[in-house]
Amino acid sequence: MTDRPSPDPDAEWWTSTDVADYLGVQVKTVSAYRHRKQMPEPDRRIGRSWIWKPERIIEWHNEPGRRRKSREAGQDAAGGGESRPPA
Fold this sequence. Notes:
This protein is mainly alpha-helical. Helices cover 44% and strands 10% of the residues. A hairpin with a 2-residue loop joins strand 2 and strand 3 (49-52).
């Protein structure tokens, strides 16, 4: 990531870049999350840019178990989530 300051949680809107900076991911990751419906839908569109209310992203990001669920889904997709039968 870059050395940008964290986005202002009191701002009226966050762009995809702000969301990416807040989550610590690349903008293309935010786009992928949005396309796969793995994050809140954008609140508005201005031109070609999607924007969100910061409180929605912060609330979603802080949901209990959200990060654990996404890690498990990633393991399942990679084949790492299979359970072995007892020996």
